[in-house]
Design a protein that fits this description.
Elements lengths: L1 E5 L4 H14 L2 E5 L9 H7 L8 E4 L2 H6 L7 E4 L5 E2 L10 E4 L8 H6 L4 E3 L12 H15 L7
Parallel strand pairs: 1-2, 1-6, 2-3, 4-6, 4-7, 5-7
Helix pairs in contact: 1-2, 1-5
This protein binds S-adenosylmethionine.
The site of S-adenosylmethionine has 16 residues, from helix 5.
Length: 154
């Protein structure tokens, strides 16, 4: 699987996602600008020594990332209020799971242009606006891996 973080801001979230990617052999795509420096100690601590095991790519902006996507690439946009539940999507091994910024989420334009690829994780408390970014990545990534029968488990 491919995990895409658009303009991540909080180092421990990106570190946790890097660790998830290492454990699941997923490719991590980080889209600039970041809210931290890549040598941030919190980022390293949260990813522990897993960073060396992660295939990760850094992209100057969204357009630079999209330009280099393979022709067959299928993107899923994970953001609150999507019409589709993440558990209703049928994921394929090379799909891209795209997540938004901690403070702002994914750009509205991107979501409105891709309504059939906009996935929500259900919420049960109207007072709670959103879930933590790295928790969202874990939930959706493991649903995608479950659908593939956890193929490759050691
Ligand atoms: C902290 S949230 C973004 C902030 C949020 N838009 C707000 O209202 O404050 C960071 C990212 O986590 C993911 N996320 C959080 N809650 C979600 C939910 N209920 N369904 C789908 N994605 C969610 C999205 O990718 C989102 O861009």
């Amino acid at each position: 699987m491919n995990i895409v973080l658009v303009e991540p801001e909080i180092p421990p979230n990106t570190g946790n996602v890097a660790r998830l990617c290492a454990a699941t052999k997923s490719v991590l795509h980080l889209i600039e600008p970041f809210g931290f420096k890549l040598d941030d100690t919190q980022l390293k601590r949260a990813g522990m020594d897993y960073w060396q095991q992660v295939e990760w790519h850094r992209w100057k902006n969204w357009s630079a990332f999209v330009e280099k996507l393979p022709a067959h690439a299928r993107l899923w946009f994970v953001e609150s209020n999507g019409a589709k539940l993440y558990s209703e999507a049928k994921f394929a091994p090379d799909d891209y799971l795209v997540f938004g910024r901690e403070t702002a989420g994914l750009p509205k334009k991107l979501l409105e242009e891709n309504p059939e690829r906009w996935l929500r994780i259900p919420m049960f408390n109207a007072q709670s606006r959103s879930l933590n970014l790295s928790n969202c990545v874990a939930l959706v990534l493991f649903e995608a891996l479950r659908q593939q029968g956890f193929k490759g488990e050691i």
